[in-house]
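Lab notebook, page 48
Experiment: co-folding of the full assembly
Goal: obtain a model of how the components sit together before planning crosslinking
Operator: M.T.
Materials (sequences as entered):
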Amino acid sequence: MGITRRGLGGVALATILEASTARAAVGVLNVATIGEPPTLDPMLSTADLVGTITQHMHETLYTFGTNWAPTPLLAAALPDISADGTVYTIPLRRDVKFNDGTPMGVDDVLASLQRWMGNATRGRQTGRSIAGIAAAGDSAIRITLTEPYAPLVSLLAFNNSAAIITPAGRQGGPVGTGPYQLREHKPDQYLQLVRNPYYTPLAGPSQFYGGARRPLLDEIRFIPVPDPDTRVAGALTGQFDYIDNLSPEAFPRLDASRTARPVVLKPYGWPVLAMNTKQGPLADIALRRAIQTALSPEDMMIAAFGSAQFGEPAGPMYPPGFPWHSDKGVVRYGEANPEKAAAQAKAAGYAGAKIRLLATRQYEFHYKIAQVAVEYLKLAGFNIELQIADWATLTQRRTDPALWEIYVTSSPFLPEPALNGYMLEDSPGWWATERKRAAVRAFNREGDAGRRAALFADIQTLIYDEAPIFKVGNFNSLAARSTRLQGFNPAPWPFFWNATLAA
Amino acid sequence: MRRRHLVWIGLVLLIAVTLAVACAPWLTPYSPSRLSIANRLQPPSGRWWFGTDDFGRDVFTRVLYGGRVSLLVGASVVAMATGLGVGLGLLAGYIRRLDAPIARLLDAMMAFPDILLAIALLAALGASAGNVVAALTIVYAPRLARVVRVATMIIRELPYVEAARAIGATTPRILLKHVLRNLVSPILVQGSFIFAHAMLAEAGLSFLGIGISPEVATWGTMISAGKGYLDRAPWLMLFPGMAIILAVLSLQLIGDGLRDVLDPRLGKEV
Amino acid sequence: MADITLLHLAVRRLVGMAAVMLIVVSIVFIIVRIAPGDPAAVMLGPEATGADVAALRTAWGLDRPLAVQYLAYLGQLARGDLGRSIFLDRPVLTALQERAEPTLLLSLIAIAIALAIALPTGIAAALQPGSAFDQTVMALCMGAASLPTFWLGLVLIELFAVRWGLLPASGYDAPGASILYRLEHLILPATTLGLASAALVTRYTRAGMLDVLREDYVRTARAKGLGERRVVLRHALTTAALPILTVVGLTIAALVSGAVVTETVFGLPGVGSLVISAVLRRDYPLIQGALLVVAMLYVLINFAIDMLCLVLDPRLRT
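Observation: model returned without errors.
Model output:
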């Protein structure tokens, strides 16, 4: 072994030299993530982490361009939609190759979309409005709907629970059309991506997720660093070039740092307590309303984000600036009245059934929100048990209605409301009442933007009335990048094509 | 003798800590769990002696209430491990037929590193304060049993025990009346070490997030929660850390001193 | 004749060790069986269908009597099969092998640091028992033994990594990184772990030396006018080597426990942090396998040390 030959005395100096050369390797990007992805198949997971990593390896027919407008990626153009809004013809690009060199064909697209409708949470939901998918010639497909479904293109563009295109015979494997491909995956250590030699970028400038995706970096390494404090330390010591999901309390340190720059996305998203409406005590709407009454979004947001600079309570599902913003129907939000909630729970016949609240510590703010929620719910007389799990495990456990009553999660503000989990019936929480079904259906059928906003306000009203979720507030995200990272375009699911590292 | 002083210092420290923890409601006007977000991360002052945490709770109050859980876990482990360990050790040391199987079992139990065995047991049983006590009892009882077994073997051969046997005293009577009485000092010595180790282990397990639920204040969970604030609010980690060190130190002083004061042959550290 | 005694003893210890190992296996078998719920359902995770669970129950023979299951488990182990990790989707043995390096290096360096501190300090303290130096050493040891390892580790990270930027705060390997790159990441964790063990080993060294220095032949050597240095090095240290060796064997268990915590604090991808993530991921086969392997290693190491003592010191062969 090397140590014995060189002797330990020489290690110190040699180590410093060695380490600095390892860090200086140009074109190798080290990204610190919140942990190990539960899967590398983005169809099977709605976790942001999975989407962030796999969007470099797998692509969808569409993606989001400037201002979140859907734009073609593997498709050659936006779909040609029939006058009644039920037939979508999607032309495909002819120059796309998978990273094993085989060209992408109609068969691959058909097989992939079939798998999406069968296996992906979003795909299954969408599939209920789809009458059939067929080839339309050798480089186009045709999707026939049972009724108009406005969010279809946004759903096809989304990068989690994603309609990725993989080869017909090898669905769900690592072979994809993205600018990068998997070289090596050592769980809990790193996931190494290298350029896809067969990749052909789109022509034209880069536009957010759309336009040309140029794999300029030789390698991207995603390194799981589950401890939030260790991520901060890694940012400050210059160990990583991009560090995802930092606690806002680290902002002053990053701002003062010479190696790292803070990356703030504003407004980013919303933390939420999802409730199990299918099974267990919270299947009772009265108890969910009591929980709404008990909780203090203000305390949760301050505990989680430190100051109003990074997070503040807000009841509406979208912040001002989004067409979906509205104050309509927001009730019981911010009452923070555990005594009243206790009375409500008692009136509903609550007799101390256990409420299990799942949270992870990898997202520090989830954990803090959970702790504040637990205290308020205890004051309201709920028999609450906080269960901490690894994020990957939590995303698996939340799919089983027998295992939880509440879990803490968060989401970016999604450009198309239909992409939100609460709009689906399959997503954990399983909110599926007749009123919801009618409201969501009306919203999805509507093509006119103005009328859709009004219909979404109706859904928001229903969310507060039936309480399937408790939206906590609005927050800005904090990440960090090294001063060497250039050409990086901040986005909710950060991507690293088109980026370079200064020497 | 100087060693005797160490025992006293340790005892005084331990009693002081125990009293402070037991009298928590009279020593502090605050609640350990009530949130006061407006007062978060206040430095130590006349109003908050140890400052406040990230939820605005008084750290001094939480150190006191957290100490209740930490000390209670340690004490319960000692009590249960003593019961189990003494039972096994007596049987193995006195009844020759049982010696070999019990000794092998103890060897096997000791082959598991303490935290690792506790982790595996907690993974199987589920994390809760009760299960932490159960797991640590299973971890530490063999250590005590080993010492008791050796001590019993020595005592068994003492003249008056043989005399008692000769005049027809029953085995249980001999064990309780003659053997156990002589075991008090090694048990005390080992008990104080196990107490110390159990408290460190509880803190470690809670720190790893697989011990006591993180919303319950214990010294371990408090350090774990405070580690992100080492630069801005070092008091979050400092005070519970000092509390652990103080309690463990007092127990080690007691154990160390007792061992030297009492018969050194019987109290070899495990 | 002496060799025959040695062989005889070795065989007896070997039989004893085999018995202990069998019990270790049994304990591990029992621990997984006390987990509430159906192990098959637990192992397959919540997304499994009822048919999957039933198939696994049959495959594992969970419907058979416990004794039969136990024998089957023994047979599986005899073939070197420790099962398969659910989350990592690979054999447990492979997963453990992949994670062995950081843990081994961490333990070795920590032992080296502990010995480098403890041996000279312990011997020096034993040579002047009761002196101010001796008392300071003993007080420091007691203080160090009262420090929670993770607390020490966090303080070292804040100082050496974050404030002064001298050493990395976490991590271990990178594609194509050399052993030196990895060693750099071990400096802080090994120091943390080494300091904790140093306290223990110092105390044992001091006690061992004190015992030896009281022995007749050392006194004789001193009386004969041999220089103090020679007495210590030639006579006392060689004798004290045995108890110290035994302590090192015992320390290994403490090191593994410490490694679990230290690896988590420093984000080292070793066996310890693997076990912790396995617990958080409810990956029972992995927990079970890791526990078994570590305990087996401990038994083997202590057997080796036992034999080494027998070879070195004929007086033990009675």
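Interpretation: Residues 1-25 of chain A have pLDDT under 50 and may be disordered.
Next step: discuss with group before ordering constructs.
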